[in-house]
Amino acid sequence: MTKNEFDIINRGFIDFSNRDNIQILKKFILSEVTELFVRNEKIRDKLKQNFKEDELIEKIFKILEIYSSKPLSTFKEIANEIRVDDINLIKSIFFIIRNVSSFQEIIVKKGQGSKYWNNIIIPLLKSHSVKNFIEKKYSFPFRIGLFPGLSCMFQCSFCGRNYDAVYKRDFADKGVEIFKKIIDEAPSEDSSRFFLSGGLEPLTNPKIGEIIDYLKLKNFKASLYTNGYMLTEKYLNKNPSIFNLDSLRISFYGVNDAETLAVTKKRQAFKIVTNNIINYIKLREKHKSSTSFGLNFVILKNKSSDVIELFKLVSELNKSVGNGKNNFDFITLREDFRILGNRMDNNEKNELIKNIKILEEMKNNDKYLNNIHIDYGFALEPLKNGFNGNKIESNFASFDDLKILALPQGRVVVDLYGDVYLFGEAGFLDRPGAKKYILGNLFEKNSMKNVVEDFIKNPHQIDFNEEDRDFLDAWDHIAVRLSQQQSKNRDFGISFDDGLINIDKINDHLKSKHKVHFSS
Ligand code: SF4
Question: In which domain, by residue range, is 8 found?
């Protein structure tokens, strides 16, 4: 292979549509297939009887192109695209792809769908929760969001919460006891099982430190998602357990005073939260805390230039800390995924592609932004790679998808009243229409096992509405679509083990230090 050819294959991202790349990729595919055939003569003979060499390479190229950018495609759709209808031949082609490690790497790491693969699909597949869902078998939820907040001081414009709803105060205690019970019940082999989020604002629960300490005592990691408003110096001195967190993410709602007020409706919110960030970082250093710290920022319609302002602000906040360096471990950037929200149009997305380039340069040239991990999430990762095609809404669960009611074996969220919700955005107290997505109550049923098992055995009769799709967060959309995909693949006649991904070996391709955020 020439150096140019080698560079194209080894790039972090492969552009299948670039005509210059196509021949190089096909040449590469041929060399990998030839090598595999030496070890697998039976497969070679079978495929050679049915396809000319260039035909076979073209089909493999097509599959890599589709599955790396649209990981929720079904095997039937792929078979139609490559125009093969013999199930045994399809299985033989899939065998090749599953057994060539560079093809596996291309699919999960080098296409527009890499974030889908890495952040949700592979963790879910490895956990067997999708398999258990399809086979109607119980398993303890792979991820559980604990929602400890009693109330929230913001009224964010895009929030689904009921602004008048507050939990009864005595449930700060009772709810925390129920959280401890779930923590006791959880299998211990996966330390990242829990995250603390909302629901409402987690720091409004005076017992938050006790939950963090309990998770740590039981050898679970503790991650907290907060709006940062209460994270004052006084609060931190009173709640030092915050410094024992593994990860702390502040949802940041505006790059200046006016914008933050417009979103949160809370005067002084911008000033208070930015001051809290500076103080938190100083105290984190004083406590020698190893908490991974960062911000989450949702880019709203007509606000794509905010990403530049955000990074300017982060640089300024770092300067104010006064230790001469960057103190943020990560920034997660997200597109607004609400079904009923306004989507960015193509022009704005092109604008965003330019702005992302600028911020990547800023990151390289400013010591106060050095080494920040930017997680672009599902929707923005393709834009980071210069692509404006793979729309987030194309991966939304449809109204019909919703009816399969995935996936309690994958993720549930639990509130202080012990209600276990199926979807992340349904877990807001008294959110109109959300109650029907409560699987069961932990005070009544005593254990998560009972709640999930009862739900699997006796699924609720639910009166679905189109608007209910707004109860799904980004995780839920993918989990529901993934469950649909796997069940359709099974009906098509190809089992999970005969598919395109070798899930037992996939970790070899996924070495990354960055922690996945299971709260959207
Ligand atoms: S989005 Fe979060 S911070 Fe904003 S109102 Fe809703 S719960 Fe509160």
Answer: 3-126+497-509
In a domain, 200, yes or no: no
- Of 157, 166, 205, 227, the one to substitute when testing ligand 1's pocket (max ligand atoms within 8 A of C-beta) is 227
Measure the CA–CA gap between 10 and 14, rounded to whole angstroms. Answer: 8
Question: Does the beta carbon of 284 sit less than 6 angstroms from any atom of ligand 1?
Answer: no
Indicate whether 14 belongs to any domain. yes
For the chain, how many structural domains are there in total? 1
pLDDT one-digit tens code per residue, 80-103: 999 999 999 999 999 999 999 999
Q: Per-residue pLDDT averaged across 285-314, rounded?
A: 94
CA distances from 252 to 108, 227, 299, 333 (A): 30, 7, 10, 10
How confident is residue 519, by pLDDT bands cut at 50, 70 and 90? low
CA gap 393, 339 in Å, rounded = 8
Distance CA 269, CA 266 (A): 6
**Atom from ligand 1 closest to the CA of residue 264:** 4
Is the pTM higher than 0.85? yes
**CA 510 to the chain's CA centroid:** 15
Model pLDDT for residues 208-217, shown as the tens digit of each residue: 999 999 999 9
Two tokens, residue 171: 């449930």
Q: Is 152 in the pocket of ligand 1 (CB under 6 A)?
A: yes
